Structure formats: C-alpha cells, structure tokens
Amino acid sequence: MGESRHALIIANDTYEDQGLEQLRAPGHDAEALSEVLGDPQIGDFDVEVIRNASAQDMRTSIEAFFSDRRRDDKLVLHFSCHGIKNESGDLYFAARDTQPKLLNATAVPAQFVYGCMSGTRAGCTALFLDCCYGGAFSRGASVRASQDLHVLDAFTGEKPSGGRGWAVITASNSMEYAFEDAKLTEGSTAKPSVFTHAVVEGLETGDADLKGRGEVWLDDLYEYVFDRVKERNPNQTPSKTTQMQGSMQLAHSRRRRIRVDAEPLPRRVQEALRSRNDFTRLGAVDEVRSRMESQNLSMAEGARQALEAVARDDTHQVADKARRALSDACLRPSPARLDFGRVPRGTAVPRQSVALHGTPLARHCVAHATGKWLQVEESTDGLTVGVDTSAEGRLAGDIVLKGVADDGVVHVEAEVVAPQPDEPPDTKPLDSGQKGPSVTHRPESRLLLAPALAAVALALAVTSVIIWIVAVVATVYAEEGLRVGPEETFAGSAGHHGVIPALITALITATAALVLGAFARRDLSARRKRYTPGAKSATRSMASAAKRCAMPVFVLTVLMSIAYNIVTKHL
Fold it and tell me: Is 521 helix (H, G, I), strand (E, B) or coil?
C-alpha cells in the first residue's frame, strides 16, 4: 500500500466569550495553507479545514484524524487560535464556544492532542501551533495570548510507539507572543500571521528547499521559517521539538530549479573574455562552450553563467555566439507529448519513454507529475512514464521538469474506459504500484489492420525497387545487344531481355505499395483511439518508408516507359 498524506487545519478567529479577543489572521491562515498543502505540485495532501468549530467538534475531528492510519501515512495538524492555560499551567486550545472558567468542558486540552498523536499508527506527524503563550509584543500588533506558558512542555515524553515519531513547531517560545501582521488595522484586508505566512511562502516558492534537492523537508522548513519570522519581527522566535527518527519530507519544491555550485573559469579564460579584441573573445566563447559540455556539473554551471554574462553585455557578434552556445543547455524532452489513447480500466498499460537531450548540465533536472495517476521513474536515457488505470475517465496532466537554467514540460493524456464485455478475456497482472485486481482487456488482434497494411506496403515497395533495378539492367543489356547485332531493332532486343515485363511489374508493385500505405494511414487516422501507441508508431514508420521507396520507383518507371516508346520509334 502506498503513502497517503493528510492535513487537518483548525482555525478559530471568532469567539462567543467577550474575554477572548477576536483574531483577524486565522481564517486567511487556513485558506492559504490549505491551498499550498493541497496543491498536487507541492504538498499533495488531502486537506480538511475546520473553522470556528465548537470544542466537541474539534475533539471529534482531531481524534478521527489520527485514527485508522498506516505506517506509511504522513499527517500535518495546524492550529491557528488562542492558547490558554489554567491555574495548574496546563495548555488548552480555544474553540468558538470556549469559556475560560470552564476549560475542561469547553476547550481542547493539549494533552488530548498529545494522546492522539502518541496513539496513531501514522509514520510521521507534524504539528504546527500558531498560538501565543505570553511575553512581549510590539505596538500595533494583535496578540494571541493568555498568560505565560511553554507550549513545548505539553508535548514532551517518550517517542510514540506506533510510528517513526512526530515534531512540533510553534510560532514563538515561552516568553513571547505570536504576532498577526503588525500592519493590520481595522477594516484592512486580512493576511496570514507572520508565522503561517512564512510557512506558506517557503512551501509555495520552494525557497524552503535549502539544499536544492527538489524536496522540502521539515527541518529545512523550520530553518527557513525561523529566519523569515525573525527578519520580519525580531521579538518573535519560532521553536521546535522533535520526537522523530530522521526528518519528514513535507512537500515538493516543484517551482524551484535544481541548484549546482558553479566553478569559476580559469584566469586565462576570464582574461580572454575581457579582451578588447573581438576575435579573442569569440575564441574564448568556444572554450567556455566546451567547458559547459563537461560531465563535471560544477564546471559546466560556471561556464553557463559566464556565457549568460557575455550574452547580456558583449557586442552583438560575440553575444549572438554566446546565446547560440547557451541553447545547448536548454532542457529538451523528446517527445514532449505522450498519448496513451483509450485504455481499458485496470489493465497494465505499456510504459512510454521520454529522452532528455542536451549537455549533461541540461539533463540534470528533477521531474514531478501533476497528478497522482501519473507514474514517473528515472531511466538511463531520461524518464519512463506510466499511467494508473484504476479509475475511468479522461486523464490529462503534465510532467514538470526543473533544470538548472530551464524548465520543461511533458504533456500526458490517456482515456481510461470500461472493459468491453463482448470480447474474450485476457487476464494480465497489474504493474507494481497499480491498484485493483487482475482484469480482462480486449485482445490486440483487432488492432492490427493498419500495421498489417503498412507492412505489406513496405514489402511491395522494396520489391518494386528490386524489380526496377532488374529493368534498368535489362535495358542496358538490350542496348548492348544493338551494338553486337545492329540489324536487330531496340524493341526486339528489349523484348528479348524482358525490359517491358520488368517495367510493368515495377509499376504495379510501386502503385500497390502507395495505395496500401495510404489506406494504412487513413485507417490509423480514422480509428486512432483503437490503436496502442506502439502500433501507431510502427504504422507511421512503415508507411513512410514504403512511400519513400515506392514513389521514386513509380516516377522513374513512368519516365522509362515514355523514353522506351520514343526510342522504339527511331531504332
């Protein structure tokens, strides 16, 4: 069973009790965070948002969220609300109907959340607390707080036995408030809080992918959020505690290019690029271009950056040459569009390959699919793409390629249809990673008309070439016969060597090849959804080859026939 990813966002900005200040940011926090976590290109989480719920509804949703999970599951729970402590120092999360004097009955205890986290079988859990727990605040900031409390104290203990563990990240430490945007004033448009804004920004832009791995890990996200929050508000310090083996992959940085550390050019090459002589700089561009084609990616990236500077700043002639060199670093997937056609539901779909062309630096990229039904694996020459056929419907999506200096997209389409009940069964096992039982699919024997016609056309075209060569040889012998026996006519000598039958046979076979090739292409075009991608490719290749062979034979045979009629009248 594969990994599943679930997120629960709890946002409370409206409170019935007059003693709890109304908050502006939680509603927008929930909206912004749910979009980025639910984006298939970023978090790819199944997101549930609970807003301004009662304490009982919050407890029910939290317990249900952690129940019935598997070790491969990843969970994210986010609170954006008031944090309150009782006289004993216990932490509670405020609900819409919370009464500060009746916290046990009307609020959600932190120990309740801790118990649910400890009991879940999910492999990884990340808990984000955008709440305040006492301390200082800056003028103009709206503060979420209720006396001093160290929030992480409520989430300490032994690592849960059901999975690999959990991590808690808070908006501030025990002596500080978590701030909403200090620029907010009455009547202004709500924005996410400082903390949640940094979380959303790091995931959405991919800037939290600090190591350029194409993935955002929880530890990297915390470092990014810490720096961004301190930059915007020095009085707020996010905190983290971890009871986890390793780290947690939280999202894809699909909007961020892969990074390579650049190696500077040798001094002699740098000096040549700065020379006042245009020819010297043109020669230096060739040298830099050869370095950009190196297997050493750091060397290649340094050369690419140098060429970009030349293309930007040098004279027209030198800059044009640099731009032509840079085109080699472009990401060129081939083909850029894959069509799996109509595929019966549940069948094992043949995989298709995508080659990545260009220099080693150009091919150094990360690939991410925009849909769960797309299966992408790296191969020796590029990518291998498959389609999950467990659900019927029209499928269309992209494989997004992020390279060092360029982006690429491979568009993928398929239509999953119900199996045909009137066709004999042909059971095949599913590929690994596909869901559902073994099913039947229609045999491919009904799909071979166009390839068969194309194959016959190719055979006839090759035959016509051979026969035409025989006719040419026979014509040469007929002409030599006239020299030996001048009393004989050309028509007689040609008839003796079989020129006419050879020409007629070549003309007929070439014509038949062209006709059958045309029928094959027409059938392929009319019923393209009935053919597999392999059958389509084979048909087009054979029909094209048949045309290239038969057409010259047809033309030359006609010309030879005309020439024969003219010659026989004079010889």
Answer: helix
Buried b (16+ CB within 10 A) or exposed e, 166-183: bbbbbbbbbebbbbbbbe
Contacts of range 465-468, beta carbons closer than 8 Å, 24 or more positions apart: 465/549, 465/553, 467/502, 467/505, 467/506, 467/509, 468/502, 468/503, 468/506, 468/510, 468/553, 468/556, 468/557
Q: pLDDT for 214-252, tens place per residue? A: 788 899 999 999 998 888 888 788 888 888 777 788 887
Residue linked to tokens 């992480």: 152
Distance CA 479, CA 469 (A): 16
HSE of 297, CA atoms in CB hemisphere, 13 A: 13
Is residue 560 a contact partner of residue 471, using CB atoms and an 8 Å limit?
A: yes
Give dist(CA 65, CA 110) in Å, integer: 15
Q: In angstroms, what CA-CA distances link 303 with 21, 280, 289, 317, 349?
A: 58, 17, 7, 19, 42
Q: Are 361 and 289 in contact (CB under 8 A)?
A: no
In this structure, the strands spanning 107-109 and 91-94 are antiparallel
Cα 301 from Cα 329, distance rounded (Å): 10
Q: Tell me the pTM.
A: 0.47
* Closest by CA position to 402, among listed 369, 353, 371: 369
Continuous H helices in 485-529: 490-497, 499-526
Q: Residue holding tokens 């995931």?
A: 203
Residue pair 349/429 in contact (Cβ under 8 Å)? The answer is: no
Distance CA 127, CA 563 (A): 89
Environment class of 354 (CB within 10 Å of its CB; exposed 0-12, middle 13-18, buried 19+): buried
CA angle 27, 29, 35 (to 5 degrees): 105
- Dump pLDDT digits (tens) for 105-132: 999 998 899 889 888 888 889 999 887 6
Task: Give 176's DSSP letter.
Answer: B
